[in-house]
Amino acid sequence: MASQDSSNPSHATFDLFVQAQSCQDVKLHFAELCRQLEINSKDFRNFYNKLKEKLNYWKAKTLWTKLDKRASHADYQQGKACKNNKCLVLGAGPCGLRTAIELALLGAQVVLLEKRESFSRNNVLHLWPYTIYDLRGLGAKKFYGKFCSGALDHVSIRQLQLILLKASLLLGVEVHTGVEFEGLVDPSGENGWMAKLQPRTHPAASFQFDVFVSAGGGRFVPDGFKHKELRGQLAIGITANFINRNTAAEAQVAEISGVARIYNQKFFQDLLSQTGIDLENIVYYKDDTHYFVMTAKKKSLLKKGVIKQDFSNAEQLLAAANTDEEALNQYAYDAASFSTGGKLPDLQFALNPNGKPDVAMFDFTCMYRAENASMVREKRGKKLLMSLVGDCLVEPFWPLGTGIARGFFAVFDTAWMVRSWGLGVPHLKVLAERESIYQLLSQTTPENTSKNYAAYCINPKTRYCRINLSSIQPHQVQHLYELDKSHSSSRKQKHMVSGFEELLKWCQKHTRGYEMVDVKDFTQSWRSGLALCALIHHFRPKLIDMSSLDESDMIHNIQLAFSILEKELGIPPVMSPSDLANSDHIDKLSLVLYITQIRNAFSLPSSVHILHPELNPTPAATPPPASEPESRGAALMANSEECYFCHLRVYVLERISAEGKFFHRSCFTCHRCGITLRLGGYTYDQTTGEGHEHGRPPREFHLSSGRIEKSDSRVTRQPSSRTRRVRFGQIFRTAGWVRSHSALFPFLQQL
Ligand SMILES: NC(=O)C1=CN([C@@H]2O[C@H](COP(=O)(O)OP(=O)(O)OC[C@H]3O[C@@H](n4cnc5c(N)ncnc54)[C@H](OP(=O)(O)O)[C@@H]3O)[C@@H](O)[C@H]2O)C=CC1
C-alpha cells in the first residue's frame, strides 16, 4: 500500500489530474497515475477498488466517499446488475459521459468514443436543482471548486465535460478521443456487434458489445432511428461568449437568468429604440466566460444587415452565405452591452476552436426529436440493445435551459433500461418500459418532478412524480425489435431438424432391445404398433404385456397403445389405427406431434401426469398439482370430440372444424343437396344449424366471422383472426385440436 506521504509522486499526480483543465491533460495525468500506482486501467472490474487501495491520500479519500455513496445504491446491485454487458457509448458530450458513469456503476464494461480531441465549448448550460445535487454527488466541487458556488445554477459545457470525464475514468470507463464512429458492423463468424471507426485500425474497433448508446448530439442519428420534425414559428437563436477576467468590476454585474419579452416589455422596447435590436428573450450567465443566449427577431436582423437577404425558408435565411459575420458580432456585442447596462468593462470576445469570435446564430424553428428512444437488433443470434440520449434523442431549445436536465433524465432512464436488459427482463418488455418513460420526457419541469433529490437514482419512479411504466405494452413495440429473418428462419429450420433428430434419438433409446422394433423414422417404423407399445412398456411395464403381442396384428397393437396412452396419460389419438397401419395414410407431422406428447408426458414427474389412480395413489392430504385439472380437462375435452352430424368419434386427421363444431370430412355436406362443403365455401344458418350449398362460382360465398359482406361484383371476406385460425387449423384439419394443444405451439410454429 502506498504511504500517506506528501512527497509521494502519485499524490501530486492525483492533484494534477483533479485540477486538469483540458481533456488532454486529464487523460495524460490519469495515465501517469495508473503507471505510478501500477494499475491497469483496462481492468475495469477492479480498477476503482485497486485505485482506492493504492492511493492512500486524504484528498482522494473525500472523493472516494462520494463515489462510494453513489455506487452503493441498491439499483446497481453492488456493480453486478450488468456485469456481463459490454457497452459502447458514442459522444463525450455531457450526456454521453454521464451515461458512461451510470453503466460503469452497473458493472458493465464501458467504452466511450469521441471524435473531438479537445473540449472547447464555452457555452453555458442551465442546471436544474437536481442536476446540481447529482453532480455534487460525483465530486463536481472537488474537480471544479467554483462549481455552482453561491446561488449560481449553471456550468460551461467544457467544465461539465471535464468533471464527468474525470469521474468516468476513475470508475473504469475506457475513453477514446479523436476517433469517429462511422457505423455498426454486423456480427459475423464468432464476432458479435462491433463498430466501424475512423481511424480504421483503432483498438476500439475490435470491441464487441451488446449495448450501444448514442449521445452524438443533435446532428447524429444512428441508422435505424427516425427523427420527427417539430416545426414552430421562426426562432433565431444567437449565442455569444466574452472573456471573463474575473475582475471585481465584472463580479459586480448581475446575471440575467432569463428575461422574456412578455415579462419586461420596457427593457425590450428600450433595447429596440436605443440600439435597433429586437429580441424575444435574453439570458446572461457569468461562468468561465460571459455567456449570452438570445432569440432575435428576423426584421431587426435584416435591418442591421446581419441577414443579407430575406427568405421564407429558414435554412436559406440563416445559411452562412446569407450572414454577415461582422454585423452578427456587432449585434451580439450591442445586445450584451445594453443588457448589462454597459457595466462589463472591456468586453472582448472569447475565441472558438477556429480562433474566431465565439458568436453563433442558430435556427430553432425546426427542432428534432427521435420517434423512439430504443430498439433491439438481432443478427446471427447476437442481440444489440440500442438507445439514444441527450440532444440525439430530443433537441432542446437552449434559451429555456432544459437541455441538460432532460438530457440527464434520459441518461438515467437509459441506464435503467440497460439494467433490465442485464438482468434478463424480456426484450420487448425492456423496450416497452423505455418507450413508456420516454413519452414523459418532454413534459418534465422542475415543478412536476420529485423534489427529493437525495432519492434520485436510475429508477424512474424516484424522479417522475406520476409514471406508468407500462403505458406502452410489449406488443406495441414489436417493430422496435429488428430481427435478421433470413438467419432466424434458417436457424429455426436447424432447430426443427435438430428437434426431429432429438425425438428420434429419444424413441430409439427407449425402444432399444424390444423384438421386432426398429425405430428409424416417423412413418414406417410405427406401422405395426409395436414401437408405441414398447415405449409404454419401457416407462410403465405394468400396463402392457409385450409377449402377448403379434407383429402382424397391427390394428390391435395400435389400438391397444392408443387406448392406454389416452386412458393413462390423457393423450388422445391423432389418427385412426387403420391410418397408422396403412403406410399411405401415415401423416409424419401428426405422428411427430403425437410422440412429442408421449415424450413430454413420460418426462414429467409421475405425480403430474399419471391419471391412473392405482398406479399413482394420491395421499388424501396432498392436493393435486395446480396444473392437473386443466390438463386433464383439456384431455377430456379432446377425448369427447365427436362428429356433429353422425355423433361418432372423429380423429384429428379426418376431422374438420367449423362454427365451433367438429365433423368427419365426409359428413360435412350441404343439407339441401348433399354436396361436400369446403371451408370458406358455405353459409351457416344459426337457427337450424344446417349447412347450405355454397353456390357457384365459389367466390360468391366465403367464410367470415359470422359476417358476409357484399361488394359490387362479388362478396368479399373481411380478414379476421378467425379466418386466420381456420386456415391454420386446416393444416391439421382442425382448429379445435390446435387450440386444445396450445402447448405445442412453439413447435408448430417452427413448421
Ligand atoms: N452550443 C451549445 O450551447 C450546445 C449545447 N449543447 C447542450 O449540451 C447538452 C448535452 O449535449 P449531448 O447530447 O451530450 O451532445 P453534445 O453535442 O454535447 O455531444 C456530442 C458529442 O459527440 C460527438 N460526435 C458526434 N458524432 C460523432 C461520431 N460519429 N463519432 C464520434 N463522436 C461524435 C460530437 O462532436 P461534434 O460536436 O464535433 O459533432 C460531440 O462532441 C445539451 O444540454 C445540449 O443542449 C450541445 C451542443 C451545443
From TrEMBL:
<protein>
    <recommendedName>
        <fullName>Molecule interacting with CasL protein 1</fullName>
        <ecNumber>1.14.13.225</ecNumber>
        <ecNumber>1.6.3.1</ecNumber>
    </recommendedName>
</protein>
<keyword id="KW-0503">Monooxygenase</keyword>
<dbReference type="InterPro" id="IPR002938">
    <property type="entry name" value="FAD-bd"/>
</dbReference>
<keyword id="KW-0963">Cytoplasm</keyword>
<dbReference type="Pfam" id="PF00307">
    <property type="entry name" value="CH"/>
</dbReference>
<keyword id="KW-0274">FAD</keyword>
<dbReference type="Pfam" id="PF01494">
    <property type="entry name" value="FAD_binding_3"/>
</dbReference>
<dbReference type="InterPro" id="IPR001715">
    <property type="entry name" value="CH_dom"/>
</dbReference>
<keyword id="KW-0009">Actin-binding</keyword>
<dbReference type="GO" id="GO:0003779">
    <property type="term" value="F:actin binding"/>
</dbReference>
<dbReference type="GO" id="GO:0016174">
    <property type="term" value="F:NAD(P)H oxidase H2O2-forming activity"/>
</dbReference>
<dbReference type="GO" id="GO:0010008">
    <property type="term" value="C:endosome membrane"/>
</dbReference>
<keyword id="KW-0285">Flavoprotein</keyword>
<keyword id="KW-0175">Coiled coil</keyword>
<dbReference type="GO" id="GO:0046872">
    <property type="term" value="F:metal ion binding"/>
</dbReference>
<feature type="domain" description="LIM zinc-binding">
    <location>
        <begin position="641"/>
        <end position="703"/>
    </location>
</feature>
<keyword id="KW-0521">NADP</keyword>
<dbReference type="GO" id="GO:0120501">
    <property type="term" value="F:F-actin monooxygenase activity"/>
</dbReference>
<dbReference type="GO" id="GO:0071949">
    <property type="term" value="F:FAD binding"/>
</dbReference>
<comment type="similarity">
    <text>Belongs to the Mical family.</text>
</comment>
<keyword id="KW-0560">Oxidoreductase</keyword>
<dbReference type="InterPro" id="IPR057494">
    <property type="entry name" value="Rossman_Mical"/>
</dbReference>
<dbReference type="InterPro" id="IPR050540">
    <property type="entry name" value="F-actin_Monoox_Mical"/>
</dbReference>
<keyword id="KW-0597">Phosphoprotein</keyword>
<keyword id="KW-0479">Metal-binding</keyword>
<keyword id="KW-0967">Endosome</keyword>
<dbReference type="GO" id="GO:0030496">
    <property type="term" value="C:midbody"/>
</dbReference>
<dbReference type="InterPro" id="IPR036872">
    <property type="entry name" value="CH_dom_sf"/>
</dbReference>
<feature type="region of interest" description="Disordered">
    <location>
        <begin position="688"/>
        <end position="721"/>
    </location>
</feature>
<dbReference type="InterPro" id="IPR036188">
    <property type="entry name" value="FAD/NAD-bd_sf"/>
</dbReference>
<keyword id="KW-0440">LIM domain</keyword>
<feature type="compositionally biased region" description="Basic and acidic residues">
    <location>
        <begin position="690"/>
        <end position="715"/>
    </location>
</feature>
<dbReference type="Pfam" id="PF25413">
    <property type="entry name" value="Rossman_Mical"/>
</dbReference>
<dbReference type="InterPro" id="IPR001781">
    <property type="entry name" value="Znf_LIM"/>
</dbReference>
<feature type="domain" description="Calponin-homology (CH)">
    <location>
        <begin position="497"/>
        <end position="603"/>
    </location>
</feature>
<keyword id="KW-0862">Zinc</keyword>
